[in-house]
């Protein structure tokens, strides 16, 4: 079970985009995420008529390391660390460390 998953709302804690919020679009592996609107770069592309691509400058999201984001807690309006807790029925759920409340999802 991963602490941050696809579809989670996260906030960037360090780096050029510190303070920005976004939704996790894709988990690349155990350490990198693609977050909507975060770590955007401009890429110069050549036209490729075989693929139907036009040339020019495109903006795209680049991966950001898992340690540079925190799960956004809507109750406190801040990023929070995530932990795990076993319920009485045997399910393993994610919780916010500062408050101890369960993550919705």
Describe this structure in words.
The protein is elongated. It is built from no helices and 10 strands. It has a single domain (9-96), classed as SH3 type barrels (Roll), CATH 2.30.30. With 105 residues, it is mostly beta strands. 0% of the residues lie in helices and 45% in strands.
Which short descriptors sum up this protein?
105 residues; mainly beta; SH3 type barrels; 6-stranded antiparallel beta sheet; elongated
Helix share bin? under 10%
Number of strands: 10
Low-confidence stretches: none
Q: Quickly name the level 1 CATH class.
A: Mainly Beta
Proportion in β-strands: 35-45%
Rounded radius of gyration (Å): 17 Å
CATH topological fold name: SH3 type barrels
Structural class category: mainly beta
The number of domains:
1
- DSSP helical segment count: 0
What is the residue-mean pLDDT, rounded to a whole number?
A: 94
Strand order of the largest sheet: 6-3-2-1-7-8
What would you call the shape? elongated
Main beta-sheet strand count, sense and barrel state:
6 strands, antiparallel
**Helix and strand sequence:** EEEEEEEEEE
What is the CATH architecture descriptor?
Answer: Roll
| End-to-end C-alpha gap | 13 Å
């Amino acid at each position: 079970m991963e602490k941050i998953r696809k579809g989670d709302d996260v906030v960037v804690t360090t780096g050029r985009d510190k303070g920005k919020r976004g939704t996790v679009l894709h988990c690349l592996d155990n350490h990198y995420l693609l977050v909507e609107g975060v770590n955007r770069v401009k890429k110069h592309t050549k036209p490729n008529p075989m693929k139907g691509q036009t040339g020019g400058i495109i903006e795209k999201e680049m991966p950001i390391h898992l340690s540079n984001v925190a799960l956004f807690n809507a109750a406190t309006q801040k990023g929070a660390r995530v932990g795990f807790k076993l319920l009485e029925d045997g399910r393993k759920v994610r919780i916010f460390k500062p408050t101890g409340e369960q993550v919705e999802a």
